[in-house]
């Protein structure tokens, strides 16, 4: 029996769309690109091709930001996607790499423990001890493989990588070469190579980028959704996709439930109610769009396996509390105050209020 992967890479999940774009794309393509910059933007933002085929939007937001990001990758400058957590930086990075290179898997995941070997190259120590330094004993990093093949490499959470390891990127980005002093040689980047990095400024453990490294990037700041309608659409699309991927036997959440959740997140995030009448205290968490998607996904799982398959307030409440209350004392006080002064007073929100109070008690 063939196992089904839990999550397909972007180039697998949207293979049909990429294939149709390749067929319809007659514009000039940069060296080694699978698609033209116009087609890459269409893949991310969605649209209808001349043959009537519909491309689904992967990113809902400013068209100009995506065009700037794509244009950057067509030059020799690397791209840094910057913003608060949950603004789809990794999502955009993955889809850009899939559309440009046909592969989104040349990735270095940044953590506090990421070493220079993970960014540059490592060694097969058994062969190194047996034969000494050689190309056969060298273990290339994803970044090195991208240089050799002219593809897009990705570095996730760049600011979580220690500063001295971050700076190992400077030579690669400025000289487009990776020295291998042990072998007295180097790897030079093939045309088409570039780098997409993501970073945020809100998580604990952030290491500031040096000025020298910042200059090697063109920075595009991805904002939180500008309107509630935009955020609702993003959450709705992603939750429906998540439900299909996980094969949850539940109905897609009603638009009302999505809008309530998005309203709660936006009000607590902004520190004021939508009507501007009540100021609120903001909890310690980011309450991002990605967290709203996670809360709804959790609610769908509860509804599917422990309910009647229809998402209700009680299914939403448990995940909602977990998203808002990160600091047990401080955030709990803020959440209870919001429940009593805002949620309790709203028409049609009584079921959600009771469910949240029951879980919070």
List the helices and strands and how they pair.
Layout: H1 10-13, H2 15-24, H3 37-45, E1 47-48, E2 54-55, H4 63-73, E3 78-82, H5 89-101, E4 107-109, H6 116-119, E5 121-123, H7 125-131, E6 138-140, H8 142-149, E7 152-156, H9 163-166, H10 169-175, E8 177-180, E9 185-188, E10 194-199, H11 211-214, E11 217-221, H12 228-246, H13 255-270, H14 289-306, H15 313-324, H16 330-341, H17 350-360
Parallel strand pairs: 3-10, 3-11, 4-7, 7-10
Antiparallel strand pairs: 1-2, 5-6, 8-9
Helix pairs in contact: 3-4, 3-5, 12-13, 12-14, 14-15, 15-17, 16-17
Explain how this protein is built:
The protein has 361 residues and is an alpha/beta fold. Strands 4-7-10-3-11 form a 5-stranded parallel beta sheet. Strands 1-2 form a two-stranded antiparallel sheet. Strands 5-6 form a two-stranded antiparallel sheet. The mean pLDDT is 92. The protein contains 17 helices and 11 strands. 38% of the residues are buried. It has 2 domains: 212 residues, Rossmann fold (3-Layer(aba) Sandwich), CATH 3.40.50.300; 133 residues. The chain is globular.
**Largest beta-sheet characterization:** 5 strands, parallel
The shape is: globular
What's the rounded overall pLDDT mean?
92
What distance lies between the first and last C-alpha atoms, to the nearest angstrom? 47 Å
Strand content: 5-15%
- Widest beta sheet: strand line-up: 4-7-10-3-11
Please state the structural category: alpha/beta
Number-wise, the strands total: 11
The appropriate CATH architecture of the largest domain is 3-Layer(aba) Sandwich
Give the C-level CATH assignment of the largest domain. Alpha Beta
- Give me the Rg, rounded: 23 Å
